[in-house]
Amino acid sequence: VMREWEDHEEAMMYFREALRIKKILLGKDHEDVGNTVYNLAVVLDDLGKFDVSMGCYREALRIRRLNYGADDIHTADYLQCMGNVSNALEQQQEAHDYFKESIDIREQFLQTELVDMLGGDFDPLIVDLKPCGEETQAQYEKLVLCYEEVSMLRG
Predict the structure, then answer these.
(1) Hey, which of 13, 16, 41, 79 has its CA 20 to 30 A from 22?
(2) What is the pLDDT along the chain (155 residues), one digit of tens a residue?
(3) How many Å separate Cα 82 from the centre of its chain?
(4) In degrees, to the nearest 5, what angle opens at C-alpha 97 toward C-alphas 62 and 36?
(5) What is the C-alpha end-to-end distance of the chain, expressed in Å?
(6) Within its chain, how far is the Cα of 131 from the centroid?
């Protein structure tokens, strides 16, 4: 809520306190700890503290993969954010690598979802997604955004 009101400093304070408590109660590798670390990273991004936010994204990604595996669709979101931060830090090769990994996960997700729904082999970039669910459409939109971000890196 504080972040939505653009009170980033106060939001950061709340996330840090929540993180401290969750680590004590749940352990450092619990998914709720990872989600809080991710939210803290987003706030740090908003504040332009990219070096610190990248550390938080890395930790959140580690926890996410530990709990859900390397190909979990939400890891693609984390990787996309990490690509944006790397780009802001003018680390184009790292940004490219994070976007590419995000793209790979999203393409696999879409391929699986669409094959299950439509059957057959096809290109997920040229299929009509209107009959698909909201999650599939959202992942497609994020995939397109990743392609756009990668193409801007090659500039």
Answers:
(1) 79
(2) 445 657 788 888 889 999 999 999 999 999 999 999 999 999 999 899 999 999 999 999 999 999 999 989 899 999 999 999 999 999 989 999 999 899 899 888 877 776 665 555 555 555 555 556 677 777 777 777 777 777 777 55
(3) 7
(4) 30
(5) 37
(6) 25
Residues in CB range of 5: below 8 A, 6 or more apart:
none
